[in-house]
Amino acid sequence: MKTLPLSLAIASAISASMLANVAIAEQATKTVALDVVTVSADFRDTDVQELPEAVTVIGADNIALRSAEHLESVLSFAPNVNFSSGSSRGRYFQIRGIGERSQFVDPVNPSVGLMIDGIDMTGLGGAATLFDVQQVEVLRGPQGTRFGANALAGMINIQTKAATKETEGYVAGKFGNYNTHGQSAAISGSISDNVQGRIAVNSFQSEGYMENEYLDKSNTNNLDEVVARGKIQWQPDSDSEFRLTYLLVDIDNGYDAFTLDSSRNSLADEVGRDSQDTDAFAISYDRELSDALILEIDASASWNQTEYSYDEDWVSDSYPPKWGTVFDAYIRDEQRDSIEIRLLSGANGKIFSSTTDWVAGIYWMERDQDLERNRTGKSQYRNALAVQSFSTYVEFDTSISDTSSISYGVRAEQWKNDFSASDGVEGDTSEILFGGKVTLEQLITHNHLSYLSLARGYKPGGVNSDSDVSEDNRTFDTETNNTVELGFKSSLNNDDLKTRLAVFYIQRENQQIKSSYFDPASSSFQDYLANAAKGENYGLELESTWQLLDALKWDLSLGYLHSEFKEYEYEKNVYDASWTLIGSETVDKSGRSQAHAPEYSLATGVHFSPSEFLTLSIESEAKDEFYFSDSHDEKSRAYVIWHAQAAFKDGPFEVSLYGRNLTNKETDVRGFGGFSNDARSTQPDDEGRYAQLGEPRLVGIEGRYNF
After folding, report:
1. Geometric angle at alpha carbon 420, from 419 and 422, rounded to 5°
2. N or C end of the chain, less CB within 10 A?
3. How far apart are CA 387 and CA 431, in angstroms?
4. Sign of the C-alpha dihedral computed for residues 514, 255, 657 and 167 taken in this order
5. Beta-carbon count within 10 A of 678 CB
6. Complete domains list, the chain, with CATH
């Protein structure tokens, strides 16, 4: 099975190579070239081909190609990037095998950060909708200098479309199977000579892909999402600019995704909810103080309320009772505030004999979160978390010669959190964390760049909230990620063929691992975080885009990943047939792969434009099997799926027919195991495999009028 994706990649490469001779022969008359793609997540906007680190940029064209509404539908464009669901959307992300997969009671410090227009949405992945988005930037590897905590594995940065000076806009609609429909509109332009604005609104609904046979409904796992955004840009003079963004997210999705037989036919008698209400602001101010000094200030604030609820036994109360009807609801209220102030060297601001550009800054963040848990038959549980962070950082970029340079930066962060719960559990931590990066860059020729980097990232420790957790496991330590990366970026044939290659090795120290155990007294699973001694991840990432002809483009994304636990053991309770605790046993996971870390991932596509009005595209993506969790050995299934689109454009009118997962292949986006949720099971050692299925075959039509 593992040879199939490789065969697809080889076949794609051979097909492209067979067309290469034609492409070369057509060079003299060729007029279409690949666009320059700029990454904005770093301290300075940089061409992705010139940035010495592994970055994937998913542009608006890629988003339109799949008629994607949410980030989960386009992440396969980035090698060695995965997601987990366990909700109505894939809202937990993993990069190079590192990242969270769920959240219930305990506070979580994510390994993968999420920014939307400068607003920190880390841990709130349901908000990662793709309406009116300019591009998605996926930075792979620890971002110890730029972002610090919450970017142990990398950062996902979503940039939506900016306000424009010229008046423009669009209205759009889409219809598809599963009663899918969406409407959107945007308008942008100048309000005055030095003020521009943009307003965009989107509404999307779908019945979802589950049939609840007990309730006789087909919309218990529905999608109902509204996103609105407003932007203002103001240039008070030629040397400065203010930017203001307002984001509204109103998500009211159903959640009814798990069944005892891992099918799309639910028997739940109570319907869950996966909702998010967000009001957020971001303000930025840039000023060129002189030709040697630039000031940048970014501030943001957000207010978020989420509800995550579900029928815990997945069946009705008429089913043979195991622990009776249990409905579980987690309601969180959260406020986040942050401000960052940076000074950067300008055109004439280099130091050390005019060899070195530099940036220095400070960052402050505060996050307050309140959880209310309401579970059938239990007293209401509450907890509160207050997090404060203050960082300072500096980075230098020194030219060694005309063709080589070295960049080096460090970040120091004071991290504090204070936790309290209604069951009496309390805890607080305070620590100083350090991250950074050193990169040696060599320009081999004008169009060929190589680099070698050493980066250190970190994820703060914290407190386990379960009152039954032993005091030895009450707290867990900070995890660090030390990554060595060797990369090569090239452009050939007048920039028609662009390639990016990265090889990496990761050493994880005090790896934070989520573990679970079943508590018969409460008839529920208790989660806690612990530290494994070490973890090891290494692999390769290849991305290539080739404009073979004016009418033909081919792209490829290929990832290989090896992940392994080092010296990881934990104690597991052992029960007799009457669920009486009779002892414990040691479980040794040393040498096993880490969760949600598939060995290979692949995405490739061919795009053909037989005329200026029509573009035909076909894509394939593949992914290896992977473990659902670190605490059991159930796996997802490997898969290969296909997508296609036919897009017609004539002046301001655009119409496209799209299909995702054309062969209706079943894929797994979240799973559980190591226990039985079936009421007919009587033995403690009965174990099941329960998987949430990903998208089935989706087909539809989109229309858009631009003005």
Report:
1. 155
2. C
3. 12
4. negative
5. 18
6. 3-706 (2.40.170.20)
- Sign of the C-alpha dihedral computed for residues 525, 530, 535 and 538 taken in this order: positive
Q: How far, in Å, are 122, 211, 396 from residue 99 at the CA level?
A: 12, 31, 29
pLDDT of residue 418: 95
As a whole number, mean pLDDT of residues 284-293 equals 98
- Residue 438 CA: distances (Å) to CA of 342, 406, 409, 688: 20, 7, 7, 47
Cα–Cα distances in angstroms (integers) from residue 642 to residues 64, 283, 597, 602, in the given order: 16, 41, 22, 12
Which residue, among 367, 342, 452, has the nearest Cα to 404 in the 3D structure?
452
Distances (CA, A) of 78 to 55, 160, 489, 558, 586: 8, 19, 16, 8, 38
Question: Tens digit of pLDDT for each residue in 511-546?
Answer: 888 776 555 555 555 677 888 778 899 999 999 999
Nearest alpha-carbon partner for 599 in 624, 620, 621: 624
The string of DSSP letters for 619-634 reads EEEEE---BS-SSS--
Largest CA distance in the chain: 80
Token digits of residue 597: 């870390």
CB 655 within 8 A of CB 685: no
Cα–Cα nearest to 698, from 42, 73, 2, 39: 73
**Per residue, what are the HEC states of 49-96?**
CCCCCCEEEEEHHHHHHCCCCEHHHCHHHCCCEEEECCCCCCCEEEEC
For the residues 430-452, what does the mean pLDDT come to? 96
Which percentage of the chain shows pLDDT scores above 90? 77
**DSSP bridge pairs for 515:** 528
Distances in Å between the Cα of 593 and the Cα atoms of 537, 565, 642 are 9, 6, 27
Q: Do 525 and 480 contact (CB within 8 A), yes or no?
A: no
Cα–Cα distance list, 48 to 57, 77, 151, 187, 613 (Å): 8, 15, 19, 29, 29
Our measurement of the distance from residue 524's CA atom to the centroid of its chain's CA atoms, rounded to an integer in Å, reads: 29
Tokens of 227: 């996103």
* Nearest CA-CA partner of 647 in 677, 674, 681, 608: 608
Output the CA torsion sign for 512, 518, 519, 523.
Answer: positive
Residues forming beta bridges with residue 555, ordered by sequence position? 545, 605
Three-class SS of residue 72?
helix
The upper half-sphere exposure of residue 676, i.e. CA atoms within 13 Å in the direction of its Cβ, equals: 13
Torsion sign over Cα 340, 341, 343, 347: positive
d(CA 454, CA 125): 29
Quickly state the pLDDT bin for 690 (edges 50, 70, 90): very high
Q: What is the tens place of the pLDDT at every residue in 231-251?
A: 999 999 999 999 999 999 999
485, 53 in Cβ contact below 8 A? yes
CB count in 10 Å sphere of residue 598: 23
Q: Are 398 and 411 in contact (CB under 8 A)?
A: no
Helix (H, G, I), strand (E, B) or coil at 548: strand
**Non-local CB neighbours of 28 within 8 Å, separated by 6+ positions:** none
Average pLDDT on 404-410 reads 98
Exposure b/e, 112-140, CB count within 10 A at least 16 = b? bbbbbbbbbbbbbbbbbbbbbbebbbbbb
Backbone dihedral region for residue 239 (phi beyond 0: left; psi -120 to 50: alpha; all else: beta) = alpha
> Quick one: CA dihedral 117, 122, 127, 130, positive or negative?
positive
Region of residue 92 (phi > 0: left; psi between -120 and 50: alpha; otherwise: beta): beta
> Model confidence over 26-47: pLDDT tens digits?
444 455 667 788 899 999 999 9
* Single-letter code of the amino acid located at 200: A
pTM: 0.93
The DSSP secondary structure of 431-489, one letter per residue, reads EEEEEEEEEEEEEEETTEEEEEEEEEEEE--EE---TTS-GGGSEEPPEEEEEEEEEEE
